[in-house]
Specification:
Two copies of one chain form a homodimer. With 247 residues, chain A is of the alpha+beta class. Chain A is built from eleven helices and five strands; from the N terminus they run ααβααβααβαββαααα. The longest helix of chain A has 24 residues. Chain A is globular.
């Protein structure tokens, strides 16, 4: 029953086939029927297909090649701009220039994004999320001309698959599911949950290629370092201030 | 092709039928195949079915009745606890006690949640998101015994529909989609985009029932007030500090 969800894989290589405008509209409409906060729809998406604009966005996404290759780039935003304008035109005093409103809008935007992703996959398209969106939000804000109370929270690249890779491994479900209350891990359960992953040839090569001793070190020393995380924390916080969500 | 997404509705009234454990596991497994940051899976879900625990959670969700009625309550968390423990056991220095890591983990958790929601709906279940999760995160943390670097970001109630309401209206797609760059609204476009919604009998009654002049005022004065948003902003920020995501 869930093959359309369990047999999926992220697609990073796209063919030159463009996406039909009508299909894209249907995909976005499917996304918009998702749940959202109080039916305010505190989100928006910027659909970018223009080569020059994609080039301008590229450095913000660390020049990951899927951005230029994908015919469509979707930047999903937490958005209280439209609602705030509506309130002002309706004799209502908006109160959405704060962190809680950002969180509600971010949740809305990501629920919308994931429904769009599933709709796209159902239509035979491939997607890739770009986590770099919250790293360099300010550059994306500048390029896409996002007004006050609009902040990008994630990006999807969209296109027809050129290369379809194997399905990616996941940790055993017990790694992410707790019953009734959170059951914290013991050293033994951590070992058991990561055993299979750490034994995969793919990851052994990944560790060797990165000249590290353990898979965890690839994450802490190479991919998601403390220094970078702290640098991009401050940068994202400033973008939230700049856009008016933090006073 | 997208009927399973466009014909959905949020379900707030559940029958007494329980959810088969095997089905719930399949739904969660489908969710876990979704995209996530660097395949770290920086999320978790607490599955609550115990009546006493649901009662304890209830005030945090402002005693919304679907929480007690639903056979299953799923609390989705941004979670760097498991990863941090794994790093420490693997001679790796974790650097995830910061805001950017919280954002990455929150995005992971919500992508996971929305795939779980769609899987559940595909199986004939009904879902309702509880936005109250970020309002009273600290109370949920206490009840579910969430450790450091675990913060709840959204909640789903899950059960078989007792009452299936009409499909909820959405704004025209142009309200949430911008092409190439963000095209800010004029007063005229705002009026045009909200016209149909404001003319619905449902919302006219909603405005009258709340003794307000405009629909926007119901949002600003009753449902999502500036005062509450600011109060819950500070509260959520403190929960992030308490859990170690903000220093």
């Amino acid at each position: 029953m869930f093959e359309f969800l369990t047999q999926r894989r992220t697609i990073r290589n796209y063919s030159k086939q463009t996406i039909d405008t009508k299909l894209l509209q249907q995909i976005l409409e499917a996304g918009a029927q998702s749940s959202n906060t109080g039916n305010m729809q505190a989100y928006s998406v910027v659909v970018t297909t223009d080569e020059d604009l994609k080039k301008q966005l590229s450095p913000a996404h660390f020049n990951q090649p899927m951005l230029m290759q994908a015919p469509v780039v979707l930047t999903f935003c937490a958005d209280f701009n439209r609602i705030t304008q509506w309130c002002k035109q309706r004799n209502a005093e908006p109160g959405y220039a704060n962190f809680q409103s950002f969180m509600a809008a971010a949740v809305d935007a990501i629920i919308f994004a994931q429904t769009v992703a599933i709709a796209a996959e159902t239509a035979g398209l491939g997607i890739c999320y770009l986590g770099t969106t919250t790293y360099n939000a300010q550059e994306i804000i500048d390029t896409l001309q996002l007004p006050q109370l609009v902040v990008p929270v994630t990006t999807l690249t969209l296109g027809y698959p050129e290369i379809t890779p194997a399905i990616t491994d996941r940790l055993p479900l017990a790694s992410v599911v707790h019953f009734e209350t959170y059951k914290d891990f013991t050293p033994e359960t951590i070992d058991a949950l990561y055993l299979e992953k750490e034994e995969l040839d793919f990851y052994k090569k990944f560790v060797a290629d990165n000249n590290k001793e353990t898979l965890a070190q690839v994450f802490t020393d190479v991919r998601y370092t403390k220094k970078n995380n702290e640098f991009f924390s401050e940068k994202f916080y400033k973008a939230l201030e700049q856009q008016g969500f933090i006073q």
